[in-house]
Amino acid sequence: MTACEAAEKPRFAVKTPANLSPRIAWLRDYYFQGVERKWNNEYTAWTTGVPWDFQYNELSFYIVPETYAFLQTFRSSFKQSARRVELHPDFWKWSLPERRAWFNREVMVNYLPKEILPGDLIAGARFNVMTSSCLNQKETQERDKLVYGPKGARAAMLWFHNHGYGNAGATSGHLIPDYARIIREGWKAVHAELETRCAGLSESEKRGKKGGQLRAMMTASTMARDLAAEYSKECLNLANAESDAVRKKELLQMADNLTRVPWEPAQTFWEAVQSLWLTHMLVMSDENYPGPGVSFGRLDQYLYPLWEKSVREGMDAEFGKEILKCFWIHCNTAYDGMIRTGGNQGITAGYGQLFTISGMGAGGRDMTNDLTYILLDVIDEMSPILEPKPNVRLHRGSPEKLLNRAVEMIASSQGSPFLLNFDERSMAGLMLEARKSGVERFINENTVFDYAPVGCLENTMAGNDRSGTVDANLNLLKAVELTLTGGYDLIPFRDEMTGKTDKRIRWGEDTGDPTQFKTWEEFWEAYAAQTRHIVRRIVELYEQSEAIRAKYFPTPYLSCLVKGCAQKGLDINEGGAELNYVTIEAVTYATAVDSLLAVKHLVYDKKICGMAELVQALKDNWVGHEVLQARALHKTPKYGRDDDEADALARQVMELWTEETWKYKTKSTNRQFRPGMLSWNYWVADSFILPASPDGRPRGKFLSNALCPSNGADINGPTANVNSVGKALGGKAADGKGDWADYLNLLPNGGSHTMTFNPSILRDPEHREKFKAFIKGYIENGGSALQINLIDADMLRDAQKHPENYRHLLVRVTGYNAYFTSIGRELQNEIIARESHQMR
After folding, report:
1. With the CA atoms of 141, 146, 147 and 149 taken in that order, what torsion angle do they form, in degrees rounded to the nearest 10?
2. For 713-767, how does the pLDDT look when each residue is reduced to its tens digit (9 = 90+)?
3. What is the pLDDT, as a whole number, of residue 290?
4. 637 sits in which H/E element
5. Is the sign of the CA dihedral 607, 610, 613, 617 positive or negative?
6. What is the C-alpha to C-alpha distance for residues 274 and 262, in angstroms, rounded to an integer?
7. Helix 96-106 vs helix 209-221: crossing angle, to nearest 10
8. DSSP conformation class of 102
């Protein structure tokens, strides 16, 4: 071996898949060939052929600042590449939902190719489509004016983002369709219910909006049946040409499965997974957005009866795992949508098709079963791979076997192999939600245990809930900035494209000159007023895109899978679901709390500086004020240290903004706003928009991530970190009467909490037992969700130098895993710099 060859070998081992059959190994390897594949699931665009038609719905991407520069390009590109669909003669006479339902069904059933990859056990390959808006000319003109006008949704969104408030947009997905019903009853039952409801309408209702919506849903409810029939034909064609007897038998069985599911109830585990996949992939087609937090819910619960039945009737468990592993591969082809974009075959980690295992059932009973452990095996054996994203629910009664298996898998991974959700804290938040919004008939002690996360970790109910869990993302730190200036931007916004700088305008509330505040209480009241202001602003911004989506972007197929829509005759985008929420996700929480603590300490408690001096230091980005900056960084109280004084203020901040959030509903769809904390990657990008903050952070240094303490602040160890998070959420009721048992939780959506540990903490059985004890402590005192990073900083630095050797290295970012070498250098450095906790 030459010195050059030795240098090219990876210095560190990256987790590799294990126990893969030749079939699964080939499919997995084929997927990772990316653009070299002969087949892929790249977007195709489809048009009605009229000159005003378009496909790209930019509203779904308003929460993705990386796309802002390309919004018009995407619209134009999809329009130029769109293929024409021959329309029904009555197409333009139908209502908009009927047009959308017919058009999408026509594309999926009669235009897209039907293909089965070699050895695959699940049918359903192409689903990434950009279909026609199906708007007539008048509707297009009206819609475009609302989006592109000088006071339109796009301009409002850009202003909000550029001035450091955050972002908001009516986004696709982020819900749990009622997949369990389809497996249990089949689409046939859905179609029959819709027929009955439509027949029960009065003649005027049939001619009106409700009639159009139900007819659209009836059309959509046959799409999976008819697509399955086409795939059944393809399986028969392949079987007739197949020389291998084993594969021929598989293809014939697949063809037979597809004659029944998903139209009929599934009778075997194989049929159940096939039914689930076809139903799920068509949701992504209906929304024209691949897998944005469209989650499977409690997979080990509703699939378990058919797993048990099939094993009892002779199915080999390893073959059952092969079926699941094929399902895994299909989920990952969502990233083929823009396979030629970027340096990692379009894989962005941004979609999040979650499934949930274990957790409580009725009466607090633990619901772990044999399929729970089978799914853990599949996760472990297929990793590293991004989709589907697993969540494991833990609680006080979780079995030792499950805890041991979870710790074992964490020990062998780089990024966390799953996200941990904690039932007692999560269910306390959902019970609070029921009380606050008056929906105890849907969420109560007999139903709340059927919650599951969507997107990353956001808690919702299954099959009847749209909670808009990433639709509104608010920088709490902006309220601190506005308090320090009396309602002005600290640094006027400068448009880098035009070179123009904003005039000094009071965008916030007039809370007075802070240099004249004599007490901390005055400052706090001003901050509270500015917080109320920024909450109101994001509600008003969101309303613009919500109203446009409700009127111009129906999704009748998805509406079939959400309880309430058929009963009301309303599309899910019009507020048809039984449970209708929009979640305001607070960003920069710890930075805001630490900044308030710094103001209180430096200006009022210790009088180390005056308000004018502090504000000037921030305007100067701390340059020339390094001594004061050092005091702010190292001598002021911080959230995350189990410091009762700091944590009391953290709780006060939490109560302020969450209570304000509950005051609002959307005007166009009557959806209730609710609070949560998920920062995605905003804490990175927005750090360059928001100015320096009183906690000592200069502009450009990353902000805090969701519920996490600021980087470097949690110097008292992991238990102190956990205790602060639990107290910020509400802790436990002193009288033992919480919202669930003695637990309180101000965030029904949940909050993202990432902790980083050195791999040495799990080096032997003794340390693994300590880590298991830590997880049990988290159940008692921590938050609603935890993602764990086991990080060797030296490995990550080597991956930066030699990315070709670490293509499949996964790390936890915030609520999701990502391939380390595919994320930006700044974010890579932030992950390397995270404090690694030790267990003693």
Report:
1. 90
2. 989 999 999 999 999 999 999 999 999 999 999 999 999 999 988 888 888 899 8
3. 79
4. none
5. positive
6. 8
7. 10
8. H
What single DSSP character describes residue 574?
G
Quote the tokens at residue 190: 């859905």
In the predicted model, what is the mean pLDDT of the chain? 94
Residue tagged 């059952």 (tokens): 320
Confidence of residue 344 (pLDDT cuts 50, 70, 90): low
Residue 96: which residues within 8 A CB-CB, separation 6 or more?
A: 134, 135, 139, 212, 552, 554
- Within the chain, how many helices (H) and strands (E) appear? 32, 17
Confidence of residue 814 (pLDDT cuts 50, 70, 90): low
Output b/e per residue, 449-467; b: 16+ Cβ within 10 A.
bbbbbbbbbbbbbbbbbbb
**Residue 414 pLDDT class (50, 70, 90 cuts):** low
**What strands, in cross-sheet order, belong to the sheet with 44-47?**
83-84, 44-47, 129-130
The number of angstroms, rounded, from the C-alpha of 707 to the middle of its chain's C-alpha atoms is 16
Q: In the numeric block, which tokens belong to residue 624?
A: 């020339």
Return all residues near 699 (Cβ < 8 A) that are at least 6 apart.
491, 621, 687, 688, 690, 691, 692
Nearest to 59 by CA among 294, 351, 337, 287: 287
Candidates 238, 14, 218, 276; CA nearest to 119 is: 238
Other beta carbons within 10 angstroms of residue 625's beta carbon come to: 21
Q: Which residue has the higher pLDDT, 87 or 681?
A: 87
- 315: burial class by Cβ within 10 Å (0-12, 13-18, 19+)? middle
Compute the distance between CA of residue 295 and CA of residue 179 in angstroms, rounded to an integer. Answer: 10
CB-CB contact of 638 with 708 (8 Å): no
Would you place residue 4 in the very low, low, confident or very high pLDDT band (cuts 50, 70, 90)? very low
What is the C-alpha separation between 685 and 7, in angstroms, rounded? 35
| pLDDT tens-digit map of 591-627 | 999 999 999 999 999 999 999 999 999 999 999 999 9
Neighbouring CB atoms inside 10 A of 86's CB total 10
Q: Is the dihedral of CA 671, 674, 680, 684 positive or negative?
A: positive
pLDDT at 1: 36
272-298 confidence digits (pLDDT tens): 999 999 999 999 999 998 767 899 999
CA distance 827 to 684: 7
Residues 6+ apart with CB under 8 A from 537: 160, 165
Burial class (CB in 10 A: 0-12, 13-18, 19+), 592: buried
- Burial of residue 309 (number of CB atoms within 10 Å: 0-12, 13-18, 19+): middle
Q: What is the DSSP letter of 264?
A: S
Q: Which helix (H) or strand (E) holds 673?
A: strand 672-676
pTM: 0.95
Q: Pick from 720, 699, 710: which is nearest to 598 by CA?
A: 710
Q: What number of residues does the chain have? A: 840
Q: How far apart are CA 685 and CA 638, in angstroms?
A: 23
DSSP 788: E
- Tokens describing residue 376: 């853990």
Among 389, 311, 319, which Cα is nearest to 354's? Answer: 389
